[in-house]
Amino acid sequence: MGTVFANTSLISVQTDNATYDEGDTIVISGQIKIIVGETPITLQLFKDGNMVEIAQINVSKDGNYSYPILAQGSMWQNQGEYVVKVTYGEGNIAETVFFYTPDSEVLTTTDTFEVNAGSSGTFDLDYTIRGGTISTISIDENIFGLVVDIDASDEGKIVLDLPRKYIDAEKQNGKDEVFIILIEKQNGDLIETTYNEETSHSEIRTLTIDFEEGDSKIQIIGTYVIPEFGTIVMIILTVGIMASILLTRNKFQIKI
Prior knowledge:
Helix content is 11%, strand content 52%. It contains 1 helix and 19 strands. Strands 10, 11, 12, 14, 15, 16, 17 and 18 form an 8-stranded antiparallel sheet that branches. A 5-stranded mixed sheet has the order 3-9-8-5-6, with no helix packed on it. Strand 5 and strand 6 (50-57) form a beta hairpin.
């Protein structure tokens, strides 16, 4: 991200991302076309014309340079566009910009969602979402899991306390199995992603799932979802087997 060499300038500058949140590390880097002795690079960072940071950076022998800045502290309270300006020697200047959002501007919600569990009634699911909102959480017995509909106004994450009584992922020996997580992107594609499991005990498994701006749906696929669905499946299967046996008997009697 960023600019290439400015006209007649010996220096270029870029950032490793276009947007950052509070606590992120901003890596500013670039290259010098022609190294002039041991001349250092002067880096200045501005927000609305006010200087946020200034630094002197040494150039490596191959002409590359890099400088990390932690977006945290008293100078990082304002949301918006920040300008990176680097100067090398006389008249060699390059600039790039990035967008920054402090924690105070990122929507964060901690609440409890009442999930409809069919004939089992409802159950409460505690959650925290940062960078968006939850519209619905529903059970999908076809995937043995949950479907979480979100409105992702920014890149963020969701933390879900999954009650084992209603949804879980288990191996045949009863040990914990990993969940399969699918996220529906803005273009409608379903992409598998990973998650972090911070808490796991006899009653709850806590999953943290990252999402991007524009994502609309998260599928959490396990091996078990509320007992009633499993019972219904077994009843249907049993009825099907019994019906097959009766039909077979009838055919056999007719032939006799």
